[in-house]
Amino acid sequence: MDTGLIITIIIFVVVSIVILKIVTKLIKAVLMILIIAFLITSIFGFFTYKDAVELKDNLESKPKLMLLQDNEKIVAGFVATDFEEEAEFLRISQVAEYQNSFKKQDYKKMLGNNQKMFIIDLKAFDLVDEKVNFNGKELSKNFLYSVLKSNDPISLYKSETGMDPALNGISDPVEFKSQVFAALFSEAIEKKGTFFIFSEYKEKNIIIYPETAVFKFIGLIPTSFIKKMFEEAKDSAINKINQTIKG
């Protein structure tokens, strides 16, 4: 047999073996990556579900402090235990105390006897020109946004709607803003469920204290993945969580 042909065959066989080994290693590496990704996704999904269940229980029955911030300033808030009962709306003096602690990032002091604290940036709310039910009247989100921004929210509300909050016993401007905040929060939860909290936390529009491991990890996960996980959980307990929160 021709020596050149033999050398060519040997080279072909060697190259084929090398390529086969490389391909085999690549396949193993890809499979390993897929397995690891599956395990991470499964673990994340489990703990997210666990956190969602805990969050649902907390939102449903435990005292929680909900604060609204705008430009790093606490402007309104309320404390709620059972969504079937009326919340305790914060007043000027209370918000001033929270603001002092907020400047120092003393979240432990702010939490007090509450089980959970949510500090929500005004940017978290979808302030498109949609209607929201507030005190039995359909008002645009843009108008409610203006109320939250106003230095004299009660007068602004009276001039726009002809209704006087004082008739309902509300004369404190911060207490009135707190009611507006509660209406926007309820609308967001009704519309998006717990996904509102998870997604806006990822966007750094919500500070949660105390913070669980999953919330710390969630910043690394694409929002689209989180959204898909919630959307695909229609027949799971997470869907029941959203329905429960809606009341």
**Shape estimate:** elongated
Question: What proportion of the residues is helical, as a percent range?
Answer: 55-70%
Number of helices: 10
Oligomer: single chain
The mean pLDDT is 78
Computed Rg: 27 Å
* Spans where pLDDT lies below 50 across 5 or more residues: 233-247
Annotation, overall tally of beta strands: 7
Task: Describe the main β-sheet briefly.
Answer: 5 strands, mixed
What amount of the residues lies in strands?
A: 5-15%
First-residue to last-residue Cα separation: 87 Å
- The string of secondary-structure elements, in order, is HEEEHHEEEHHHHEHHH
How many domain modules? 1
Widest sheet, order of strands: 3-2-1-4-7
Class from secondary-structure proportions: alpha+beta
Q: What's this, in brief?
A:
With 247 residues, the protein is an alpha+beta fold.
Question: What does this protein look like?
Answer:
By secondary structure, this protein is of the alpha+beta class. It has one domain. Helices cover 59% and strands 13% of the residues. β1 (64-69) and β2 form a beta hairpin. α4 runs antiparallel to α5 (153-161) and α4 runs antiparallel to α6 (173-192).
List the helices and strands and how they pair.
Blueprint (H helix, E strand, L loop, with lengths): L2 H59 L2 E6 L4 E7 L7 E2 L2 H12 L3 H5 L4 E6 L9 E4 L2 E4 H9 L3 H9 L11 H20 L2 H8 L3 E4 L3 H5 L5 H9 L5 H10 L1
Parallel strand pairs: 1-4
Antiparallel strand pairs: 1-2, 2-3, 4-7, 5-6
Helix pairs in contact: 1-10, 4-5, 4-6, 6-10, 7-9
